[in-house]
Design goal:
single chain, about 180 residues, mainly alpha, Hypothetical protein af1432, about 70% helix, binds zinc ion
């Protein structure tokens, strides 16, 4: 199955908006979850200068298997094997305990494909930025600082591919750390 880029990205955005329609981010603003997906897609499309429509589509879809009733086969049928494969690469095995999933993200990151590493960079940038501007309401400072340190470990294995994205991640980390420390001070 082949699509031109605009149709592919639009179809993915629409599918993600429907699947995540009832989900909100965990901050005080309760932003619609699609805002996170749109941010990740925008980061990647800018950083790769619009060259990889399939990857931008995968950004919109990256949490559908983990967080919505969506199967890998469904993604394969609707979006093709390449996009489904990238989404699978960034999907945790939810049958495992949370701590084990987080540990696995660190130890498996280096072996991921280039596309999956770029997606992880953009995803982590969006999540860390949120800790600066609108953190989950039930997170204290220590939990936020632990998350930032964990994200740095994962992303340490995803470097050397795109300096724009790496700079965005590093800026998000410094901003979030400063914001968290100023809140607990
Ligand atoms: Zn995400």
């Amino acid at each position: 199955m082949t699509f031109d880029g605009i149709r592919l990205v639009t179809r993915a955005a629409h599918f993600a908006a429907q699947r995540h329609a009832d989900q909100r981010r965990k901050g005080r603003r309760c932003e619609p979850y699609i805002n996170h997906l749109a941010e990740v897609a925008a980061l990647l499309s800018e950083a790769t200068e619009g060259e990889d429509a399939a990857l931008v589509a995968a950004c919109f879809l990256h949490d559908t298997i983990e967080d919505t009733p969506t199967s890998p086969d469904e993604l394969r049928d609707l979006f093709g094997d390449d996009i489904a494969a990238v989404v699978m690469e960034v999907t945790d095995d939810k049958s495992l305990p949370k701590l084990e999933r987080k540990r696995l993200q660190i130890v498996t990151a280096a072996k991921k494909s280039r596309r999956a590493k770029l997606l992880k960079l953009a995803d982590a940038t969006s999540n860390v930025r949120a800790l600066a501007v609108d953190p989950p309401t039930d997170w204290d400072g220590d939990r936020a600082l632990d998350y930032i340190a964990w994200a740095e470990q994962v992303i340490g294995h995803c470097r050397g591919l795109n300096s724009k994205l790496e700079h965005a991640f590093d800026a998000a980390v410094s901003g979030a750390r400063a914001a968290v420390l100023s809140r607990v001070a």
